[in-house]
Write a structure and sequence with these properties.
By secondary structure, the chain is an alpha+beta fold. It has a domain of 58 residues. It contains three helices and three strands; from the N terminus they run ααβββα. Strands 1-2-3 form a three-stranded antiparallel β-sheet.
Length: 83
């Protein structure tokens, strides 16, 4: 398993596929859930979490999260199909 920061993964992706990695808008949410899950809550289909970089409370709609991840997967398939 490769463990690194987002910038390192994006650089590796570009070297491997010759183009930028698709945007992953949920990274701050993922970091919050991975490192401080107890500070997050779900209310009416919205995940409320603390952005660990800015120390601010942020919201992510669960439906938006699923849609963005599906779009990300489609973009990955397109990129890999061009290789």
């Amino acid at each position: 398993m490769i463990r690194s920061n987002v910038e390192m993964r994006n650089t590796f992706f570009k070297k491997l596929f010759g183009e930028k990695a698709p945007k992953q808008e949920w990274i701050d949410l993922r970091n919050s859930l991975a490192h401080d899950i107890e500070s997050s809550t779900i209310v009416d289909g919205t995940i409320i979490y603390e952005n660990l970089k800015t120390k601010t409370e942020e919201n992510f709609f669960i439906d938006d999260l699923f849609m963005k991840q599906l779009e990300f997967a489609e973009e990955l398939q397109d990129i890999m199909g061009r290789c």
